[in-house]
Amino acid sequence: MLLLRRLVDVAKLIGQGGKAFPPHWQSFATVLTKLCYQTPSQAIEARETRRRLLGLFVVFSENVRSLYLYFMRILVLFLILSTTWQVSLQAQQNRALIVAISQYPQDNGWEKIHAQNDVSIVSQLLSTANYTSANIEVLSNQKATKKGIEQGLNHMLQQSKQGDYIYLHFSCHGQQMMDDNGDEEDGLDEALIPYDALYWYLPGEYEGENHLRDDELGEWIKKLREKVGASGQVMVVIDACHSGTANRWNEADDYIRGTSYLFAPDDFLPTPGKHTNLSLRIENQANLSPAIVVSACQDDEINYEYYDRNQNNYFGLLTFALYQVKKNNAQHTVAQFAQQLTTEMKSLTSQKSQKRKQTPYIECSHPNQTFFIGRK
Asked: Is residue 180 part of a domain?
């Protein structure tokens, strides 16, 4: 009874009165007031209390209705945002382009290497990193002309969206050539060798039109970084080198990727400089994705192929070591990755009769950031 009277007191304080209410709620209010006020002298007060109590119910119902509508709006907004977020995640893709040239035209001057074998382990690596076969384009031998490579890069640029992870892999020969725009301190560009690029500089006949210069590759990387944005990533692996002999080494089972032959006129003399490594000028810039570029060796080293006895096949040393380190799409910072990759490459060559030093060269925009080859 005391509880009922307290409820009536609340009705007196906040009741609104004068508002129509459903009959069953009016009956409830009448019964409630009769329980509280049973003597004739309390009849007038009971009627007034009943009116106020109905007012309380009106206010309560209006508040519940407003709360219900507010909750429904929040729920609808949540569902819309959730759906948009899921669609956005589904739209973000892992995309890869693999360029692998094992056999160049005989009259181009380049020796055979085993770049085609790299495709199989790179594909396995990408599969574990959540790349689908539909998003992996492979350009091998005749398809990997300079035009073909540029078309592949342009196709990736057109298909890519904000948040995509991009992986570019080049297994081929490499060569230094005369700088054509004065942006290199040593007067030399580093270049990748497409299928239709010649070994020799031939004045008036072939002057490097089909070489893929580091300046050109750097422009493609920048465009891709802009396209995928800060939430994406661009990773480039270059299993080529501009050192070496472009031929088989002293040991019968050695193959070299790259050449020390300078692609330039006979009277050209490079200027001593500090920028002899391949440099794609990867910097941390607003609105550009994180980027990491991994090259097979330092400028004074030779890029050997690695013979794996288990598979009875040659592979690029960088490619094989990369597969060993990242085949589980493990979490690394760039610094940790560089250390593990260097250790793995050293381990793979430790059994050779001729001591070798081959250290990967890494450029990156976010050295302390954890990175994955593909979006999980």
From this structure: yes
